[in-house]
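Entry 14. Structure prediction run on the chain below.
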Amino acid sequence: MKKTRNRFCELMMLKAIDEAWIEQVDFTQQLRGIISGRQYASRNPLFEFNKESYKAFQKMQKEVKIRMMRNILLGEISEERMEHSRCWCRNENI
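Output returned:
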């Protein structure tokens, strides 16, 4: 049971990281377009991009921690399905 619980926690953490990372990549792509507009306002686009992307990364790190806890606390381990497959985790509330 401990092995199952550890695997469940690993999967819930990976799920949180994966979701947050996808959002981060999407935001970074949008940020490139936004920053190019600031170039016309006599701002250094490289500095602006670095500043904004660092703030977004810090926000993503906090969001990952929140999502990890939410996934683990709201998730459910299905023993029956775990016997038939390598690992099955269900979280209907996420």
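The first strand starts at residue 76 and ends at 77.
Filed with the rest of this week's runs.
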